[in-house]
Each structure stands twice: as structure tokens, then as C-alpha cells.
Write a structure and sequence with these properties.
30% strand, single chain, 7 helices, DNA polymerase, domain 1, flat, 3 domains, four-stranded antiparallel beta sheet, alpha+beta
Length: 304
Amino acid sequence: MSDQPFHITVKEGVHPNENLITFEPLRQGFGHTLGVALRRVMLSGLAGAAVTKVKIKGATHQFTTLKGMNEDIVELILNIKQLKLAYTGDKPEVLHLQISGDKEIKAGDLEYPATIKIANPGLILASLTDKKSKLSAELTVETGTGYLSAEEQGKQKLGVIPVDASFSPVSNVFYKIESTRVGRRTDYDKLIMTVKTDGTISPKEAVVKAAKILVENFQQVVSPIVDGETAESGNAIGSSTILKLTVEELGLPTRIANALLKAGYKTIGDIVSADKEVIAKVKNIGAKSVSNIYVKIREKGVPV
């Protein structure tokens, strides 16, 4: 960053939930440095919510049809995958759908708690064809980062259909660099980012969250915890910001990170405060995964 006053401006973009966010002035070359880092974190490192499982009355698997519904189960699930959700809870939450009669079923017809927000309530999920038609379904919503495929979720109970889940609340990020003037000098960078979200968070909020994640990671370079430090030392682990780092920031495979989040382990501190035997019992985490988790924690400078 330059020694000149720094400005961030936000303008509406061409599309809904899209902003043009400008940062200036930046030292020459730092526009690309900041742009690449923010873009990468926004696209793959921000937590979000998505439907991960669906249970539909009368359907034992996705390759079935329901009498009285125009769409087959595959089409219904494809529509459900387009749901844009914000969720503030910790554990999986269930959305209920109980609809009958000749009508279009929209996302706004779902019954859901106050902890969940549907950003696209007008999304059409299915169409019932006559007055006797019924659709009864349960949609499981979970939080996570990145992408979780149906295959990664493992074997489910009879009638429960796993759904490919994309958790990222950011759909597109582009950036460009322009020159900007500071006094007589014209060699400063202006970073212009076009950020589009799914409507569950604002583009500016996405940028701020990504910046915080980067700051937390760079802090480990500035003030690392070295082997042998104890809680009595000046940089006590217990008071360190390292333990506040999220599971996503450990650099674990998406499957392992999501499994930990579902089990309630959100930060490094949550993990190290539990016994390894307990972590090993988390669903979808085996002995090899546990070893990988603790290797990543040690890489952060926490002796475990």
C-alpha cells in the first residue's frame, strides 16, 4: 500500500448482486498481488450454506418419478441445487415442503427456521398437475466451504438422496489494473474488482471476509508460534490468534474440512481441545484423515 490516503469505492454492477469495487492508490505491482489473493479466497475460501441431502416421500432414489408432478426426481434435485441459502446455525437444519393441489412450487413455499434465509424465493422447484397431487420433502441444509460431491457424503439411509453442494456464496470475481495519479506521479495501481455473489451476502462483505482470512494467515508469518512454546510464554498458544483460525484455513481436503464442521469443530482451538480418539470418531474421518489434520495443525506452529 502507498503512503497516500487509501480509498475504496463501491458501485452497482450490471447484474443483480454485483458490485464494482475499486481500491486506490496501491504501489506499482501490488494491484495484481492484492487482486489475485482476494479473488482466490473469495472463490474457494468463504463459508456458505447449501442443501446436501433430500428426502422425498414416495421416492427411494433419484431415478424415480412421482405421480402428479411434471418433473422427475432428477429435475427436482437440479432445481433444488439452485437454492441460494444463508444459514447462521452450527448443525444441519431441515427445511420442510408440504404442498398439494394444481400449482407451481417455489422456494418460498419451503418451511424453514429464522436461522435460514432464502435469497431466491421465486425459484420454481416443481409443478403439480392436478388437485390430488402432493409433494412432501425434507431438505437438509449444512454449512461448508468449496464443493462437496454426493459421492463424498458416503452411504445414506434408504430414501435419503445426497446432493452435490456448492457452498461458495461468490459466483464470479474479475479484476483489472489501471494506472492512477498521486500528485505528479502516475505509476500507482488502481485495482478494480467486479464481484458477483448469490445474494446471501453482499459483494463488499465478501471482499471484507476474504481480506480478514488473508490477514489471519499473514499474521502467522509475522508472529509465528515456534515449537516448545508454552501457555506461560509471552506468545502463549492459548491467547494466540492461531487457535481462532478456522478449519477451512488449515488447507485440508474439502471432504475432511466439511466433516469437521458438521461435527461442530470450527476452529483449530476446537480440535486441539478434543481428544484424538474423539476426532477419529467423526463421521467420514478415518485414521489417515486424523493424522493429516494434526500434521496441518503442527504446520501452523501448534504442538499437538
